[in-house]
Design a protein that fits this description.
- By secondary structure, this protein is of the alpha/beta class.
- The protein is built from eight helices and ten strands.
- Strands 2-3-5-6-7-8-9-10 form an eight-stranded mixed beta barrel, surrounded by four helices.
- A hairpin with a 7-residue loop joins strand 9 (224-232) and strand 10.
- Helix 4 (122-132) packs parallel to helix 5.
- The radius of gyration is 20 Å and the shape is globular.
Length: 262
């Protein structure tokens, strides 16, 4: 009889559901924010609020970052990672899936961004993003990256501000319907000013590597601030973009609960 009980107990343990990795589950709190242990290859003396005054930091990355040790990066303050997924209507970052999975397993909240290409229509680009980026629960909302590509050998178009905003709205609406969350807009100072991106009324991620966003984008509300393109992070070889979330760790948890994918 004792042997029968042991066999039964072992069977129940084997059949019990395994807990999801940190950051993968459908419910419960998100991973607690860890403090940033970053440095910078070319630090800038900010006159506004210093990035170090914020508590929740992360990175954005593409294939150029090479191999990433996600557990080490997470332990040193990488709490979120926006990862390049697609560009235009036919280009996919070859590191996207590897990075996304590695970040998720380490407890880094991942998200995907699309680099907009001004020689392909917005509907084609939205379909391409959807084709390549699964709707993963508890991932960050998608990002629409709007900036001029000065190095593009195939597309030097700079359409009118009205055209830029019209195409952006088409992309945003398609993506929002599919993923259940409106995308965040990433942009740069020159693109923001020239194209009146504030008129879109969307949540923003702003690049400002020479001063605080309040000085570079007067009056703008932002959720993420990209404050360096020359960051040095344990677990990542070479330089990487550094970003911070606007609020406290408690604000971060609340934002994730409201804005991550279901």
């Amino acid at each position: 009889m004792r042997i029968l009980y042991i066999i039964l107990a072992l069977t129940l343990v084997a059949c019990a559901p395994r807990p999801a990795p940190v950051g993968m589950g459908q419910g419960g709190p998100f991973p607690a924010a860890t403090r940033a242990n970053f440095s910078d290859a070319d630090p800038h003396p900010f006159t506004g609020r210093n990035p170090g005054g914020y508590r929740v930091h992360g990175i954005d990355a593409s294939r150029w970052q090479g191999a990433i040790d996600w557990p080490t990066a997470r332990a040193n303050g990488v709490n979120f990672a926006y990862l390049k997924a697609t560009e235009g209507g036919d280009r996919r970052d070859p590191k996207f899936t590897e990075y996304f999975t590695g970040a998720q397993r380490a407890g880094v909240i991942p998200g995907a961004y699309h680099f907009f290409y001004f020689c392909t229509d917005a509907r084609t680009q939205a379909r391409w993003f959807i084709e390549n980026v699964p709707r993963t629960p508890r991932a960050l909302p998608p990002v629409l990256d709007l900036e001029w590509n000065h190095r593009s050998p195939t597309c030097t178009n700079r359409p009118s501000p009205d055209h830029v905003r019209r195409e952006a709205r088409i992309f945003i609406d398609i993506i929002a319907r599919h993923y259940g969350q409106r995308p965040v807009i990433y942009t740069t100072p020159d693109f923001w000013d020239r194209n009146a991106i504030a008129q879109l009324g969307e949540e923003t991620w702003l690049r400002a590597v020479a001063d605080h966003p309040s000085k570079v984008y007067p009056g703008a509300r932002w959720t993420f601030w990209q404050y360096s393109g020359t960051g040095l992070v344990p677990g990542i070889q070479g330089k990487v973009d550094l970003n911070t979330f606007v609020g406290s760790p408690a604000d971060w948890q609340a934002w994730l609960a409201a804005r991550t994918l279901r």
